[in-house]
Amino acid sequence: MLIKTDDITKIKELDDAIFTNSSYSLNTYEHMVNSNEFYFISNNIEPIGFVVIQRVGDEYELIKVGVLENYRRHGYTYGALLELLATTTYDAFLLEVKSQNTKAISLYKKLGFELTGQRKDYYGEGVDAILMRYIKK
Ligand SMILES: CC(C)(COP(=O)(O)OP(=O)(O)OC[C@H]1O[C@@H](n2cnc3c(N)ncnc32)[C@H](O)[C@@H]1OP(=O)(O)O)[C@@H](O)C(=O)NCCC(=O)NCCS
Q1: How much distance in Å is there from the Cα of 114 to the middle of ligand 1?
Q2: How many domains does the chain divide into?
Q3: What is the residue range of 67's domain?
Q4: In Å, how far are 18, 92, 96, 114 from 133, measured between CA atoms?
């Protein structure tokens, strides 16, 4: 379940817990509030993850998504992103993901995202950036 929020303090708390080595600073989130949308992924009891998206013209970009480790593999992220794709209006939904993040790539493929490009060594040697796009059916 997806809940729109502007509680960036809680988003940051989740980000810190999920992305232990690459969470954004509160300062970064404060700069993002005007140009991004924030959602909690909820298990109907409490926020267990989050999604950040950015609208650019008629397209959305998925900036960040994650769920707390204890709640993974229960379909929460798939369900939340499916809801997001169904309820937002856009021409295309884009994202970029590290080639090593096979879990996330598998998730995006399951949702219907297709591979549109690859930036070799974008994140360092041997770690490419994979570009994916969802086209509304
Ligand atoms: C990637 C991530 C968001 C997946 O969340 P999740 O809630 O566990 O995913 P779901 O349970 O909804 O799984 C949906 C699909 O994702 C893929 N997937 C999720 N976890 C996977 C795993 N451990 N191994 C392989 N595929 C996996 C599968 O395709 C799965 O479908 P299936 O269950 O039918 O096989 C979660 O692992 C996470 O938060 N990782 C750390 C943050 C991150 O890497 N975010 C993405 C980049 S910003």
Answers
A1: 16
A2: 2
A3: 1-90
A4: 24, 7, 9, 5
62 lines ligand 1 (CB under 6 A): no
Q: Is residue 107 within 6 Å of ligand 1 at its C-beta?
A: yes
| Residue 84 vs residues 4, 21, 24, 36, 136: alpha-carbon distances, Å | 10, 26, 22, 14, 12
Contact residues for 88 (Cβ-Cβ < 8 A; gap 6+): 53, 60
* pLDDT bracket for residue 123 (50, 70, 90): very high
Q: How far is the CA of 41 from the centre of ligand 1 (A)?
A: 13
Give Cα 131 distance to the centre of its chain.
13
Token pair 């397209």 in the structure block, residue: 59
For residue 137, the model assigns a pLDDT of: 76
Q: Residue of the nearest CA to atom 39 in ligand 1?
A: 66
Helix (H) or strand (E) holding 9: helix 8-18
Note the pLDDT tens digit of each residue in 32-44: 999 999 999 999 9
Same-domain pairing of 78 and 108: no
Shared domain check, 29 and 82: yes
- Shared domain for 4 and 55, answered yes or no, is yes
Q: Phi and psi of 112, rounded to 5°?
A: 110, 5
